[in-house]
């Protein structure tokens, strides 16, 4: 967590000018940290940054699944044939 004066706000800041905080989050390159009684309580991210974070997490979990798949003995898998797949798709 990289805290700097320009990315730390308080509950009071949020209460008094929520729209300004939203604009700040949208134009900033990082998150805004919301503090209450000198303790971090929340993080504001733009929707764009949030989606990027979700995509990164999804990619990470996909890579973990791929590593697990690589360990599986493929000869023991009951594979569907191309004909089975074609039959399923016609239905």
Oligomer: single chain
> What distance lies between the first and last C-alpha atoms, to the nearest angstrom?
52 Å
Strand proportion, as a percent range, falls in 15-25%
Shape: elongated
Q: Report Rg.
A: 23 Å
Total of DSSP H or I helical runs spanning 4+ residues: 4
Strand order of the largest sheet: 1-2-3
Describe this structure in words.
Strand 2 (32-36) and strand 3 form a beta hairpin. The chain has a three-stranded mixed beta sheet. It is 55% helix and 15% strand. The protein has 91 residues and is an alpha+beta fold. The chain contains four helices and three strands; from the N terminus they run E-H-H-E-E-H-H. The N and C termini lie far apart (52 Å). The mean pLDDT is 89.
